[in-house]
Amino acid sequence: MTAPNDAAPAPDESEPAPPPTTGRGRWIRHWDPEDEVFWRETGEPVARRNLLLSVLCEHIGFSVWTMWSVLVLFMGPEYGLTPADKFLLTSVVTLVGAVVRVPYTFAVAVFGGRNWTVVSAGLLLVPTLAAFVVMQPGTSFSTFLLVGLLAGVGGGNFASSMTNINAFFPLRKKGWALGLNAGGGNIGVPAIQLAALAVIGAGGGPRVLLGTYLPLILVAAVLAWLFMDNIASVRNDTGAARDAARDPHTWIMSFLYVGTFGSFIGYSFAFGQVLQSQFGRTPLEAAYVTFAGPLLGSLARPLGGSLADRFGGARITLHTFVAMGAATALLVTAGVRESPALFTVAFVVLFVLTGLGNGSAFRMIPGIFRNQALAQGLTGEEAARYGRRLSGASMGLIGAVGALGGVGINLAFRQSFLSYGSGTGAFLAFLAFYAACTVVTRAVYLRRPAPAVRTAVPDHTRAADEEKPQRGHAEV
Question: Does residue 224 contact residue 121 with C-beta atoms inside 8 Å?
C-alpha cells in the first residue's frame, strides 16, 4: 500500500539534508534523528513542534474516550441504570477504544502522521455530538451503548500519536518523548473529570460539559493541519506488522502493558463508580476525588519514561509492579474495613504507579527491537531503521492489547458487585495479575545474561534500557 498522491518523492540519501519540509501537504523528505548534527541543527525543533500538537490532539481524544466515566456520574435513578449497567457501558467504550488502536497505528503510514492527526481529531466530533443529543432521562440503555461505541474512536488517537512521534525522535530521547506524548494525552482523563466537577458544582448538566468540547476539537484539528508534518520515509509496511505480530516480545510486552495502561484506563473509568456504589458517595463527592488519580498518573508517565532512559525500562517496570501489588493489597484492606479514606489514598497511589509503569514499559519497546538489530549484526542507521520499523508496528498491537485490560477491569468490577456487592473480589484478581506481571518481567528482561559476545553500544545509549530479546541474553 502506498501513501496518498500528495506524498513527496522518496528521499535521495546522496543529497545533504534539505530543509525539513517540502512539497504539498508538509511532507518531510529527509529525516535522520540518530544523526546528532542533523538532530541538533534541524531535527529537534521540528520534532518538538509535532510533539506539542500531537499531545494536544491526543489529550482531547482521551477526554472524548473517557467522557462516559464522567457521564455515568450524572445518570441518577431517573435514568433507570444499575451499577452493573454502568460498568457494562464503560466496558463497551473501553473495548472499542482498544480495537481501533490497531488500524489507527497503520493509518499514520498510509496517510501521514499530520494528515491522520487532522482526520482522527475531526472524528471526535461524532461521539461528542451524539452524546449531546441522547444524554437525557428516558433514553434506552441500548442507545447509550451504541453512542458509547462511537466514543471509542477517542482511544485510537493514542496509537497513531505514539507511532507518529516514535518516528520523530532518536532512540536516546524516546523515553522522554513517548512519555511526554502519552502523559500529556492521558491528562485528558482528569481534564474532563475536572471540567465535570466545575459543571456539576455550577449546577449544569452533561450537555454543558459536552458543548465545551466541540470548539476545542475544531481548534485542535485546525492547528494540526497548519503546523504538523508528515515523514515521507514512513510507509505502510505490512511486512513490519506481520513481523511484529510474530515476534514473541510483542505479546510479552502486550501482557505487561495490560498491567500498566490497562490498569490506568480501567481505573479511570471505574474509580468514581466504585466510590458511588461501594461507599455511597454522591456524584459531586465522587467528582471531587476521581480526577486526582488520573491526573497524577498522567504526570507520572513522563517520569517513568525518563527513569527508564536512565536506569533501564525493565528495572523500573519490575519495581512498579511490586509497588502496584502492595497498593492493591491496601485497597483490599480498605474494602474489608470499609475505610473510604484509606481506599481513596491507596487508589491514588495506584494511579501514580500505573503512570510510572506506562512510561517505563513503553520505553522498553524501541530498545528491544534496536537490540535485535544489533544482535543480527546491523549497525548505525540500518539498525535504527530496523528498530523504528518493528517498534512502530508493534506499538499499535501492544497499545490495543494493553487497553483491553481496561475492559477486563470494568467487567471484573461488574461481576464483583453482582456477586459480592463490593469491588474487593476484583481487587484480589488484580493482585494476582500484578504478581504474574512481576514474574514475567523478571524472567524475560532481567535474568542474568549468558556469556556472549556483546555488540558495542554507543555511550549515550548504554544507560538506556538495553533490553536483550535474544535467547539467554535478556538482562536490561
Answer: yes
379 or 141, which is more confident? 141
Closest CA to 149 of 193, 91, 208, 214: 91
Cell 532512540 -> residue: 171
Q: Give the chain's length.
A: 476
Q: Is residue 281 part of a domain?
A: yes
Measure Cα distances from 161 to 6, 15, 337 in Å. Answer: 21, 30, 43
Task: Judge whether 28 and 50 are in contact, CB under 8 Å.
Answer: no
What's the CA gap between 349 and 275, in Å, rounded? Answer: 16
Pairing label, strands 27-28, 230-231:
parallel
Evaluate whether residue 4 is within a structural domain.
Answer: no
Number of domains in the chain: 1
Nearest alpha carbon to residue 20 among 2, 51, 47, 54: 47
- The position carrying cell 474494602 is 335
328: which residues sit within 8 A by CB, 6+ positions away? 350, 427, 430, 431, 434
Kindly tell me if the per-residue pLDDT of 9 is higher than 60: no
Q: What is the largest CA-CA distance in the chain?
A: 70
Highest mean pLDDT among 1-5, 408-412, 462-466: 408-412
Under 8 Å between Cβ of 108 and 160: yes
- CA 124 – CA 110 distance, rounded (Å): 20
* Mean pLDDT value of segment 348-372: 90
Helices then strands, counting H and E runs in the chain, come out as 22, 2
In this prediction the pTM is 0.75
Which residues does 4 contact at the CB level (< 8 Å), separation at least 6? 25, 110, 111, 112, 115
Distance CA 125, CA 160 (A): 18
* Three-class secondary structure of residue 377 per DSSP: coil
Give the phi and the psi of residue 48 in degrees, each rounded to 5: -65, -35
Beta bridge mates, 230? 27
> What residue numbers bound the domain in which 374 lies?
28-462
73: buried, middle or exposed (CB in 10 Å: 19+, 13-18, 0-12)?
A: buried
In this structure, which amino acid lies at residue 73? L
Of 153, 147, 139, 141, nearest to 62 (Cα)? 153
Mean pLDDT, residues 57-63: 95
Q: Which residues make beta-bridge pairs with 298?
A: none
The CATH number covering residue 51 comes to 1.20.1250.20
Q: Which amino acid is at 21?
A: T
Give me 388's grid cell.
523504528
In a domain, 476, yes or no: no
Count of alpha carbons within 13 Å of 130, Cβ hemisphere only?
19
Question: What is the per-residue pLDDT across 92-134, written as a single tens digit (0 to 9) for each?
Answer: 998 999 899 888 988 888 899 999 999 999 999 999 999 999 9
In a domain, 182, yes or no: yes
